[in-house]
C-alpha cells in the first residue's frame, strides 16, 4: 500500500466516523418525533467512493455519479424501516439511447456498491464492492438475462435490484438472474468508538471479476 492509498484510507475512515456521528446524533430526535432518520445514503456513498478512489463527482452536472462515467449504488440498514437493496443498478425504461441495452455498461468503467450495515457481532460496518462492467463477463451475462426478460415481457419493472448481504459476512449479492460473489474493495467496522480498516484490495479495480456464488461453495 503506497502513501497515497494510506492517506485515502485515513480520509475514508474519518468520513465514516462523521457519517456515523451525523446519523445517530439526530436518531433520538427522529424517534421522539415519530420520523425516520433523515440521511442521504446515496450522497454519503458517492462521497466515500470519491475519497477512497480519487474519482471525483460531477459537481452540479447531470449524468453518471462520477466524472469518469462510473456509478455508485448505496444501501443502509441502520434503523431501516424497509429492506434496503441496491436499486436501479442498470438503466431501463428511459429515453436514453443506451437504455435497456448492454451498451449502457460499455459507458461505465466501474460500478461501486456501498453497504452500511451491522455485522453478526453487532458492529456497525461499511463495505464497498467494485464491478468492472465493461469487461466482467458474468456480471454482463446477468444483466443481459434481465434485459431479455424485459424485452419478451416476462418482467415489467424498470428497477433492476440487487440484494446485498445485510448482516452477513459474505460478498454474495443476489438477484433472480444471478447470485454472484463480488470483488470487495474495502471493509471497515466500528470498534471502540471509531471505524477501523478490516480489508482493502486495490487490485480489484484492475483485475476483479464476479464469480457465480455456487462456485465459491466448492
Automatic annotation (TrEMBL):
GO biological process per UniProt: DNA restriction-modification system
InterPro entries xrefs: Restrct_endonuc_II_MamI
One Pfam family in the UniProt entry: RE_MamI
A single GO molecular function term of this UniProt record: DNA binding
Name of the protein in its database record: Uncharacterized protein
Organism: Pseudaestuariivita atlantica
Amino acid at each position: 500500500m503506497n502513501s497515497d492509498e494510506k492517506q485515502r484510507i485515513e480520509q475514508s475512515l474519518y468520513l465514516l466516523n462523521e457519517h456515523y456521528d451525523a446519523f445517530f446524533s439526530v436518531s433520538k430526535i427522529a424517534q421522539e418525533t415519530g420520523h425516520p432518520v433523515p440521511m442521504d445514503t446515496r450522497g454519503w456513498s458517492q462521497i466515500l467512493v470519491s475519497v477512497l478512489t480519487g474519482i471525483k463527482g460531477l459537481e452540479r452536472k447531470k449524468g453518471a455519479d462520477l466524472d469518469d462515467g462510473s456509478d455508485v449504488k448505496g444501501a443502509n440498514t441502520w434503523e431501516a424501516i424497509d429492506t434496503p437493496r441496491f436499486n436501479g443498478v442498470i438503466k431501463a425504461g428511459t429515453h436514453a439511447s443506451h437504455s435497456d441495452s448492454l451498451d449502457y455498461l460499455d459507458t461505465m468503467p466501474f460500478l461501486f456498491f456501498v453497504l452500511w450495515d451491522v455485522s453478526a457481532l453487532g458492529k456497525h460496518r461499511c463495505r464497498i464492492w467494485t464491478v468492472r462492467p465493461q469487461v466482467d463477463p458474468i456480471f454482463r451475462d446477468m444483466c443481459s438475462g434481465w434485459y431479455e426478460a424485459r424485452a419478451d415481457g416476462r418482467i415489467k419493472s424498470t428497477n433492476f435490484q440487487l440484494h446485498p448481504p445485510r448482516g452477513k459476512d459474505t460478498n454474495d449479492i443476489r438477484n433472480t438472474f444471478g447470485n454472484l460473489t463480488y470483488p470487495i474493495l474495502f471493509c471497515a467496522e466500528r470498534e471502540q468508538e471509531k471505524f477501523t480498516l478490516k480489508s482493502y484490495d486495490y487490485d480489484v479495480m484492475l483485475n476483479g471479476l464476479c464469480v457465480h456464488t455456487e462456485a465459491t461453495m466448492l
